[in-house]
Amino acid sequence: RSTSGNPFTAWVDRIRSQFLDLNKMINIYFGTAHVDASPDMERDSFNLNKLIVTMTTVGKVHVLHSKGGRLVCSRLLSGVKPFDTGKYQMHVTRTSSHYPLSANVAILASSLDGSNTVLTVINPLDCSIEYRHQFPSKLMQAQLTPIEDEDYSKILLLLTEDKKVHTFPPHSSLASVPLFFTVLNGQTLTGYKVVEASSTVEETWSTYVRGDSVLSVVSKDQNDAVYSQGRALGDRSVLHKYINPNVMAVAVESTDKGHVDILVYDMVTGEQVYFSRHKQYSGPAHVLLSENWLVYHLWNSKLRRYEVTVVEFYLDTPPKASEFSSLASQYKISTLQQSYISISPLNSLETTTTLRSITNRAILFAETGGRIAVIPKALLDPRRPAKPTAADKMEGLLPYTPQIVVPPISYLTFNKTLMDIRGMTTGVTGLESTSILFSYGTDLFFTRVTPAKTFDMLNEDFDYNFIGLVLVALCLATIFTHAMADNKALNKKWK
User: Fold this and answer.
1) pLDDT of res. 235
2) Would the N or C end of the chain have less CB density within 10 A of its end CB?
3) Backbone φ, ψ for residue 356 (5° rounding)
4) What percent of the chain has pLDDT over 90?
5) Can you name the residues that pair with 45 across neighbouring β-strands?
């Protein structure tokens, strides 16, 4: 494959790759090449084995293998510390799919004096440093674009406080795609547009978020896939989803007034898409934004309980184009909202992700008690009726119950207790039914999640011998009946 679209260049790349494969095979045969003795470092058929890149507060990188947690390599990055949020930033700029090019993971950190930004790019297979650069300004925001250069590396954009835009790989062309940044400074949200000619930004909009403190700021995952743009109802009508990849959600608490505001903004235009005020509520707030729905978890100070609220966004009229554009005419949006009683406080909130998002989603609740629960998205549905009608039953809506009850078999951790869960992240595999989960904190935890069971895999107790005997018997029966038919046709001709 060639990003330039030139068939000759693609042919040259293919011949070069095959020549290197042949050279490697010859070296292995004569014993002049090093071969990793670990068979689990090879790519599996279903893309279930992963390399997990982690980084401690002191700046030490650990690369773990998802199969058993084996340490692949480690390296100490000197002269760096976490940002003011207490975290580093990591972006996978190139995967291992582009052999002989190595995989790259970009790590963003603050310098020890806090005045500069340090970019380090490592190879996760051996923790070697591929690139390192220090920018003479603090980092405001970094985002990974889907644009690839000629070496299949996704372009990473960095916006620093001096309003300059830096790229990795260096000197990468941003083409003619409009790029935007949204930065929260204190309680002021500001939108910027990238000026390609000067590698700077210009302010396009700004708004002040009223409140005493910002509890949470989230945006959609860049790789968030959407299988269907509509939702079929029991009466065969369709609700058209409001699928805007450029939205962000902000949770703001007003301590003196005793309420929490949930706001959703379009990061390109600055338009306020949604607003909800919860009186006599307080933090901590855990917010999740995906597809056309929003889920958040708050503390109800009046009733002394935790509650989880789900909001779904729909268009009043069918969309005119299959691709969404924030710069197009404004959309008329309607919302559906419902709240449920949550049984425990949370440390983190996440959703399962699959390659094409055909599998029904599930919400992952990381409880402060050290357990991770899987809640089907169907239970967090704002359209659940108190008394389902025939159309509701045909659609598959569950009757409304005020409390979310988690059965013991819905806990991914089973009888294990994870200490101090600080966050979770999910990823896709080659199987549409399977998502992977990694939680980090004092304990590290990795597992597979199958919200709709393994519908695209055979069971472990599948009788391969029996099906093999059946196929052999069918082949023999086909040969026997074919001979009988030939004999019958021959005898018929002699009569």
Assistant:
1) 84
2) C
3) -115, 0
4) 46
5) none
